[in-house]
Design a protein that fits this description.
Two copies of one chain form a homodimer.
Chain A: H1 3-7, H2 10-21, H3 38-54, E1 57-60, E2 66-70, E3 80-84, H4 98-114, E4 122-126, H5 141-147, H6 152-157, H7 166-173, E5 181-182, E6 191-197, H8 202-206, E7 211-216, E8 218-227, E9 231-232, H9 244-257, E10 267-276, E11 282-283, E12 286-295, H10 298-313, E13 320-325, E14 333-334, H11 337-349, E15 356-359, H12 365-369, E16 375-380, H13 396-415
Parallel strand pairs in A: 1-5, 3-4, 3-6, 6-16, 7-15
Antiparallel strand pairs in A: 1-2, 2-4, 7-14, 7-16, 8-12, 8-13, 9-11, 10-12
Helix pairs in contact in A: 2-4, 4-13, 11-13
Family (chains A, B): Belongs to the peptidase M20 family.
Organism (chains A, B): Azorhizobium oxalatiphilum
Cofactor (chains A, B): Zn(2+)
């Protein structure tokens, strides 16, 4: 059956995207919509108004996740959830998160247009604060609280740069949610589908409009600190130096060499590095940096992390070096193979060739998969893989094609 | 003759040093005496009071250099100058600069005690603002203005972190200099002697109390910027990355390899390096760093700088790299060989074994040597070579031994 996918309106999908592009629009063609900030709340208000006008049930929970539900035959059955997030990184792209929400919104309307009554409810969801290190230091706030991966207290306690806790931000958002039904965190769900821009170039290079995400990479982060001794750059001969930058470079070079896999599947990044005291005339006394390591295979992550720690421990340079694992780790996850195959079948029925690919970034689907085995992500291409950047771009035809697969898959899951 | 060297009073030398240690003293045993700041002016006031009480002529100039003159037979003859500076780096050591001023002060008094009338005047000098990057962005302010290496306008126009120009600071210091004779910049001088802590470990390792400085290293600074592309650390495969930190590391590694001389005479330092945007989850899009290169030989500096520029220009990584020479360069200089030999003779006559060594840091003697061929520096050891640090330490016996050589050499130069 492809009735729901076929009912997806290209005009509505693109129209919604253009409307949301304008909320928090930046001078350089991006958006600035920090979690529960003015522009994020403006986007949510537009969705609430639309949903109430159409008679959908609108509800929320203790962390301001937003749910828009189209009823099914069994109103009390666990729904099929679909959606993503409306918040963005600072001065970032228009599609990251928002597209998944709009595809969910269109899915409800396409179900209406196709005249389908599903067995269970279908709920479009906006997860609060998916973008880590944007307004709040960590991401997937709403979905992690929903699944219990983080406690409610910890979640509401995170502070933004102005010292405003998430709890305070949730209370400040309440006027826009007056009259919405309040739901408990973690109500049962039957399945979860999230569509997102790829944030990589795999689909673009393959020339495909839609990809089926087979899993999400795991991540490990390690902070490494190298301590030497500050010294005068003019008077200190090489034999007396304990140059922390030099030793840090040696360590980074060795760690990188361990990650030169032929498959180009290991993601090794040193993105954050600080030199102290950072003066041209002073041999650096201390350098700290963070290694960000990602891979689809947990054993590979563990093996590399152990090898990194061993290399740091065995450091034989003039400086001392210590490694500390950071708490922001996730294990790789594989989405349900049956569901992946089902999504491939849906795309094929709609005449859209697809491929399987792995998500390099974490998404709300990561926490949700921990409590809902029937979780899946779909990707559409974005130009040059650029994301978290105002230049982020997705083609209208890809927005529409992705929404067709999304709508049909959700309809099928809710009808089974 | 060793009468003046022998007349040096250990008690006075150490007493002056302890008195000055207390002016701007820090909790960790160092001093904080920024150029023409309160504590620097307090130190100068103590010197002026002492000089006036003893009947020496005290004078100043347009950049607040301070001159204390003991008359000679020919009152109008160009004097022998000796001294250093009273300002310090922030929270730095007690001996850097100040010791050279106190040795000059003791030299005047030892001449008195020995009952010597010199042929020409002997002038103890305090040069304004020797420490670059402390209160003002560049150093040797007073000596460079004195010699015309920098114009008066440029010198007085430098601003501190609060936007206060050196000109304003000089005017603010005027109340402490009321009644002092005003002299033109760059009056003729017969010779210049400056004694300083070594800020390295050569004398300490050789077990010597005094060293004769044969010259000052030259310095070149090059700013290198590497521009790649910011990318998501989770989604961007190696083949698509343009990692600015990786390319910066490759360049630094290559430049460093060019500096591995057997003599360990080349001073190659990357002390300042910044990563943008400096986030763990973002492949660095830009890295900038400064190469500080020092050597005693101008040709070596020029050869290395050309090789560095060539390496950067030929950079074949994924990123682009550009190199810019910075204006803070100095050429190496050799002090007059005859004067070096004369100083060795003075030390020998005083029973103090010495060696020749090169200064890794620039000093006021650098600019002065440009206008006065009879310029020389002497060094005493400092513990572990530590300087620009509150832990800086020099032994009392070395302070005294150095002052004996300094006083006798100055006396001989002023008597010839």
């Amino acid at each position: 059956m492809t009735a729901v996918g076929a009912a997806v309106s290209a005009e509505r999908v693109v129209g919604w995207q253009r409307r949301m592009d304008a909320i928090g629009a930046t001078a350089n063609g991006g958006v600035h919509r920090l979690a529960l900030g003015d522009t994020d709340l403006e986007a949510r208000a537009a969705l609430i108004e639309w949903a109430q006008a159409r008679g959908y049930d609108v509800s929320t929970d203790a962390v301001a996740n937003l749910f828009i539900t189209r009823a099914g035959r069994d109103a009390d059955a666990p729904p099929v959830l679909c959606g993503s997030h409306t918040d963005s990184q600072p001065y970032a792209g228009r599609f990251d998160g928002m597209y998944g929400v709009l595809a969910a919104v269109e899915t409800l309307q396409a179900l209406d247009d196709a005249g389908i009554e599903t067995a269970v409810p279908v709920t479009a969801v906006v997860w609060t604060g998916e973008e880590g290190g944007a307004r709040y230091p960590v991401g997937t706030l709403g979905s992690s609280a929903f699944t219990g991966r983080r406690t409610l207290d910890e979640t509401l306690g995170f502070k933004d740069a102005d010292g405003i806790t998430l709890g305070e931000a949730v209370r400040a958002a309440a006027p826009g949610m007056v009259g919405l039904r309040q739901r408990p965190l973690g109500f049962p769900i039957k399945a979860y589908v999230e569509i997102h821009i790829e944030q990589g170039r795999v689909l673009e290079e393959a020339g495909l409009a839609v990809g089926i995400v087979s899993g999400i990479q795991g991540m490990r982060r390690m902070a490494i600190e190298v301590v030497g001794a500050e010294a005068h750059s003019g008077t200190t001969p090489r034999r007396h130096r304990r140059d922390a930058l030099q030793d840090a470079i040696d360590i980074i070079t060795d760690l990188r060499a361990m990650c030169m896999d032929d498959e180009d599947a290991i993601r090794f990044t040193v993105g954050k590095l600080s030199v102290y005291p950072n003066a041209a005339s002073v041999v650096p006394g201390r350098v700290s940096f963070v290694v960000d390591l990602r891979h689809t295979d947990r054993d590979t992550l563990e093996r590399l992390v152990a090898a990194f720690a061993e290399r740091v421990k065995a450091h034989a340079g003039a400086c001392t070096a210590t490694a500390t694992m950071l708490a922001t780790t996730t294990d790789p996850l594989d989405f349900d193979a049956g569901l992946v195959a089902q999504a491939e079948g849906v795309a094929q029925a709609l005449g859209l060739p697809t491929m399987q690919l792995v998500s390099g970034a974490n998404h709300d689907a990561g926490p949700i998969a921990g409590v809902c085995p029937q979780t899946l992500m779909l990707f559409i291409p974005c130009r040059d893989g650029v994301s978290h950047n105002e230049a982020e771009h997705a083609e209208d035809e890809h927005l529409v094609a992705g929404t067709r697969v999304h709508a049909q898959l959700v309809a099928d899951l809710a009808s089974a």
